[in-house]
Amino acid sequence: xxxxxxxxxxxxxxxxxxxxxxxxxxxxxxxxxxxxxxxxxxxxxxxxxxxxxxxxxxxxxxxxxxxxxxxxxxxxxxxxxxxxxxxxxxxxxxxxxxxxxxxxxxxxxxxxxx
Amino acid sequence: xxxxxxxxxxxxxxxxxxxxxxxxxxxxxxxxxxxxxxxxxxxxxxxxxxxxxxxxxxxxxxxxxxxxxxxxxxxxxxxxxxxxxxxxxxxxxxxxxxxxxxxxxxxxxxxxxx
DNA sequence: TCAAGTCATCGTATATTTGCGATAAACTAT
DNA sequence: ATAGTTTATCGCAAATATACGATGACTTGA
Lengths: 114, 114
Description:
Shape of chain A: elongated
Oligomer: homodimer
């Protein structure tokens, strides 16, 4: 039934999961890389780099935008995208915190088993 | 049609996306947290912590296992799970590298636009 | 004004994910 | 042996995700 019980999880868990979801497709990773590698906003060139149809790329851009990872600006007939570094940072920190906390807690316990 | 063109993306992109996918559900985040917080392998208690049916939790455990994030050991009638720290580290590093590289490249370019 | 371009959205098809109950498998304890 | 416990798997239903082509909206330039 796919009853998503997201309400039952903590805000942090949901947030991190949402972040991870935004990165959970190779096309979106590739898009982020492509955008980050430019000095200026990137417009149409993304479609040419990816092995996907224009409409599909647009969909992925929308997802990244929804996650807050990129900003889009309309510039004449084109649209320009660039990384939203604020969210990008937040992502990075969330992941790091998650990994570090897990490890720290585990090390505090000491014992191993498996 | 959902023709997954994963072959068209680089190995790194696919790998990172797969990692992200494993973390893209709050239940799996919660499971990892729960396991990491224990000194010993954890057995049945996971189901009690989560607001999900036993079969659903089992499915999520399988996913995490497939991703290499946790190890499972059969211990009598029970199964025990613990974090696979090797993979866990690899995850952590992959994400960090991705974030740092993107940022470094962008900073090398200097200019902003949006 | 009108053609050409760029990008978003719509509609559609298919694959995957998520979830649950029911059942099976495997061990323990009686 | 048998009943009970624990976990995995199966089967199903519904939601999401992925992908594409077609179409629409909008701007630019002739």
